[in-house]
Amino acid sequence: MEPQPEKRHIAIFASGNGTNAENITAYFNNGNNQAYEVALIVCNKPDAMVLQRAEKLGVPSKVISKAQINDQETMLELLEGYSIDLIVLAGFLLMIPPFLLEHYRDRIINIHPSLLPKYGGKGMFGHHVHEAVVAAHEKETGITVHIVDERCDEGRIIFQASTPLSASDTPDDVERKVHSLEREHFPRVIEQTLASLPSR
């Protein structure tokens, strides 16, 4: 019997409620996936719901401050300690420092709640995006998964999915439609990204 290859490890960075983090973890850590697993959840807010979700899911979590995420020794020691192959940003509101971008070049991905390049950039996150979409009377919106680089929301796009909007949709309605797309597509896009990466 041939030995099984070692699993590749995902770190999820999140700042808030953690619904995406929970969905991703459920997808990979269900006992059926022999290739990949969520090994660590990193959060910058000690009272964020994502930490409770991590505990319930049995995934190690780490609270980091803004100073810590900008400390090269701290972050590389943490991530290498869990043999992280891919960093997934799921509602993480701190900027990724240059040393992490370099060390994990093309191995950090983010999901954005609009069809980039529309409604991206500084200050455009969460409900702010959905409010802007409604204010502009857009006929559709969606999600964008992209590589994280030095420019906010401008990294190479690896996946997009759209959903139609009606004139009566509120920002809350838009948010529900976007969350549905996130649940449906994000774990699969992460899996495809991992499959395409060379070994570290």
Biggest sheet strand line-up:
3-2-1-4-5-6-7
Topology order in helix (H) and strand (E) letters? EHEHEHHEHEHEEH
Provide mean pLDDT, rounded.
93
Query: Uncertain spans, ≥5 residues at pLDDT below 50?
Result: none
What is the count of helical runs?
A: 7
Oligomer: single chain
Largest sheet, if any?
A: 7 strands, mixed
The percent of residues in helical segments reads 25-40%
Span between termini: 25 Å
The amount of beta strand, in percent, is: 15-25%
Please state the structural category: alpha/beta
General form: globular
The strand count comes to: 7
Radius of gyration, Cα only, in angstroms? 17 Å
Write the layout of secondary structure elements.
Blueprint: E1 8-14, H1 19-28, E2 36-43, H2 49-57, E3 61-63, H3 66-69, H4 72-81, E4 84-89, H5 98-103, E5 108-112, H6 127-135, E6 140-147, E7 157-164, H7 171-196
Parallel strand pairs: 1-2, 1-4, 2-3, 4-5
Antiparallel strand pairs: 5-6, 6-7
Structure description:
The chain is α/β, with parallel strands linked by helices. 37% of the residues lie in helices and 22% in strands. It has helices at 19-28, 49-57, 66-69, 72-81, 98-103, 127-135, 171-196, and strands at residues 8-14, 36-43, 61-63, 84-89, 108-112, 140-147, 157-164. It has a seven-stranded mixed beta sheet with strand order 3-2-1-4-5-6-7. Helix 1 links the parallel strand 1 (8-14) and strand 2. Helix 1 runs parallel beside helix 2 (49-57), helix 1 (19-28) runs parallel beside helix 7 and helix 6 (127-135) packs across helix 7 (171-196).
